[in-house]
Amino acid sequence: MLNSLAMRFALPIVMLWLFTMPQDQPNSWRGLTPLHSTCDDVKKVLGITECSEPRTEYKDSEWRVTIEFAQGCDKEGKGLRLPKGTVAAIIVTPQTPMTPSQFGYDISKYEKREDGEIIGIEHYTNNEDGVWFDMYKGYIMHIILVARKADEGMRCKPPKQKRGKNSSGGLVSTAGLPLSFHASRQETLASAGRDQ
Of 104, 158, 105, 151, whose CA–CA distance to 128 is shortest? Predict the structure, then answer.
C-alpha cells in the first residue's frame, strides 16, 4: 500500500522534473528534437493519436506547440534531406509569461535584432544551437527550434544550373523550412503587436 501511494506521488514529480529540466541539446523540447524525432515521438510526448503533415499543432493550458515535418527535397533543392515525417522544426509558445532564463537560455549567447515592423519585438538567434526566440517586453513569445549549424549537411542541394541561366529567384526558406512556417510565425508576431 505504501509503495503504491509513494509511486502515485513520485511519478508526477519525476515527470515534471524531466519536462522542465534543461535539455542536453538546446534545440530540444520535452525530448523532441529537429532532425531526430519522428511523428511517433511527437504522438508519445504530446499524447495525440495522429500527426497532420506538413504541420501538427497542439495546445493545452501551458503551451501552444507547432511541429513542422520534413517533406524531403523539392525540385528546386529546398528542404531537408530527411525521411518524410521527421521533425524539421518546433515552435513552442508559452501560454503564460516566461523569461529566457526560465528555459535555461543565456541571452548573451544569442544575436539580437529588433523587429523591423513591430516596435518592442526582439528576435534572438543562436544558429550554433538551432534556437531562435522572439521576445516582447522581456518575455518569450515563441521559441523556434531548428537544425543546428552542425547539421547544415542535411539541407537539400539545389540542382545544378546550366551555364548562362539564372535561377528562378523563388523565395528561399531559412533552415530548409517550408515557407508556411515563416508565414505562420509572421502572422503570430503581427497579432501580438496588435494586441499590445
Answer: 151
Kindly report the backbone phi and psi dihedral angles of residue 136, in degrees, each rounded to the nearest multiple of 5, phi listed first. -135, 120
Query: Among all chains, which residue has been given the C-alpha cell 501552444?
Result: 64
What residues does each domain of the chain span?
Answer: 21-157+175-195
* pLDDT per residue as tens digits for the range 41-99: 999 999 999 999 899 999 999 999 999 999 888 878 788 888 888 999 999 999 999 99
pLDDT for the residue numbered 139: 95
**At 181, phi and psi to the nearest 5?**
-60, -50
CA distance 67 to 153: 21
Cβ atoms 87, 70 nearer than 8 A: yes
What would the grid cell of residue 55 be? 504541420
* DSSP letters spanning 50-108: ---SSEEEEE-SSEEEEEEE-----TTS-SBSS-TTBEEEEEEEESS---GGGGT--GG
Question: Is 72 or 17 the better-scoring residue by pLDDT?
Answer: 72
